[in-house]
From TrEMBL:
Superkingdom to which the source organism belongs: Eukaryota
Coiled-coil regions listed in the entry: none
Protein name, entry field: SH3 domain-binding glutamic acid-rich-like protein
Matching CDD domains: GRX_SH3BGR
Keyword DNA-binding: no
Gene encoding the protein: LOC101380039
Lineage: Eukaryota, Metazoa, Chordata, Craniata, Vertebrata
Amino acid sequence: MSGLRVYSTSVTGSCEIKSQQNEVTRILDGKRIQYQLVDISQDNALRDEMRTLAGNPKATPPQIVNGDQYCGDYELFVEAVEQNTLQEFLKLA
């Protein structure tokens, strides 16, 4: 797969995960950055793929990947936004 992907889930009981996913997509949409949303709740193989790319067997959404390069999780995303280094974080620069 190529391009920017945001791994998320449409099925979660966690308000925190829902909020984090919404914030990531809101910021990307606001900056007009194209991405593909990958819903890991539809297929366990997608969840496993996300965890493999993240290098963490317990990783939870949202996780951000560009091509086969892992960018980071929500905390690293927010840090990049605050430091105005989002393009570099997303491996777009």
